[in-house]
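Technical appendix A lists one of the benchmark inputs used to test multi-chain prediction within the project. The record comprises two sequence entries:
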Amino acid sequence: MTTDSQAFPEALVAVDVGASAVSLRVDPALYPVDALYGAAYVFIDRCYVLLDKPDASWRVTLSWRKQQPTGEQLRALVGEFANELLSCAWRAKIATDSRALIESVTAQALAGAMGPPSLDELEKFDFSEDTFEDPLGIALSWEEKHKKKARPDDPDPTQGASSAPEKKP
Amino acid sequence: MTPLRLHRDLYAASAVDRAFGVYAPHATLARREEAPYWVVDVSAQTPERERRVAGELANYALGLTVKERTR
């Protein structure tokens, strides 16, 4: 005996009490296939789930596993499946929208978890390349930037202490 | 005999193969192709057992298909 559920549009849901089954038509334009799989997977421990694609839409058939259900129980099952389907669709959309952010945060976390480089890695690192240009001299140390400029009459600092005048006691 | 029709777009072939192997000892199963479906004919001593084996096989194939997609 096939009856139409009172709570859902007739074109979407059909309840077959005699066969202990309920069929639900799902519009692919509203729900992605991942949401369909996700919702179906949630229900396979409670009933037999059969997916079909008779035309452009999908059809989900839920059959009771053991005891003979009432029409009310089958209608409740359809309601729960529809809610789960909506939840899965929403989660799939959130996952799609935030995929780039999640990948970025995960990459940063993994890079941080690797810890500081080892001495071997530092030894192999190439420091010879100029990492950036510094036309204003910002990267110079204070000593390099403000060191005393040499005058022509100053003694040659490369001559050392031997050329310096001896101090008298 | 209970024919179980699994749509090719929704069920992975490898998942149907594995489910077929798992439930073959529990009933007489025959597999054939009938585009766009994989069809598994389930024969058992009682219609109730056929229904149960067909339902379990469909659930198993669906579970494997979902797991393959999420890898």
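Chain B has a mean pLDDT of 93. Residues 18 and 67 of chain B are 13 Å apart (CA to CA). Comparable benchmark entries are summarised in Table A2.
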